[in-house]
Amino acid sequence: MAEELAIKITDLWKAYGNVQALRGVNLDVKKGEIFGFLGPNGAGKTTTIRCMLDLIRPQQGSIEILNLDPQKDPVAVRSHVGYLPGELNMETNLTVEGQLRYYKDLRSNKIDWHYVHQLADRFELELRLKIKNLSKGNKQKVGVLQALMSRPQLLLLDEPTAGLDPLMQQEVYRLLREAQAEGATVFFSSHIIDEVETLAERVAIIRDGVIVEEAEPGHLANLEIRNVRVRFLEPVDVDALGRVEGVSLVSKADGNSVNLQVEGEMDRLIKALAAFPVADLEIDHPSLEEIFLAYYEAQD
Ligand code: ATP
Fold this sequence. Notes:
Order of helices and strands: EEEHEHEHHHEHEHEEHEHEEHEH
CATH topology of the largest domain: Rossmann fold
Number of helices: 11
Structural class: alpha/beta
Bound molecules: adenosine-5'-triphosphate
Number of strands: 13
């Protein structure tokens, strides 16, 4: 039997006029996991999340959120989901508490006020303050708090730590792990690679409206791309190695050494190296950051 999924997205396409924001996005997020959604600016993260809540309609594709179709049952979906939008649009004259009540009414959610007070304490947030007097970071805390306050089954968080200082970022990570321990699924978008590596059990990288990689952060580093350093017994013409399919010359470290990046199978490089007097060969897997940057660069 298939694993239970909190989110299932199949072949999702969305255009804004001439801008094709999503081009066949597929995503499976298991119930109870923390899933990171990583991608450069404009890659389609916010668009994907907004489609999940039926805040915008895709041209094509299907979405199931907690086994519900958001287009048929948006109210039910939103009542089970804690959503942090990427851009908070808050009624500035309300107090923090008033704002939280407003969100509750909007989503017909129940609030556990005891939990709200606990969260406010942990965020060092004063509920009686007016939203308009809050700093950007404190507004972000209100956004995270309102997403968590109904103890939803699914958290959809668009850049949850944007604008927060490092201590508060850590507090958010703790809260999300606690939500997971209580059975929630957490789906969050981020630009911050460290954050995804720290928090996510699985990660998808989206680029230009397409998911280009999906794996556990640790495994992602094992995929496809390798850094290879070769030391030769004597100076050799290494340019020929850069012409091997899947191999690019990163740098010639000194007369006898070369740094290469290999995409895909190692076989072609190994065979090409057989023609040279090799003294030493080091292979390592790039970090998630290097992989991410490789995708960034591929976009240019
Ligand atoms: P960021 O990390 O910068 O928030 P993102 O990955 O969330 O980016 P989206 O906001 O989903 O990306 O945008 C995807 C593409 O769709 C971009 O090219 C963006 O300019 C475009 N886009 C998004 N919203 C609209 C809109 N309302 N009208 C026109 N184009 C839009």
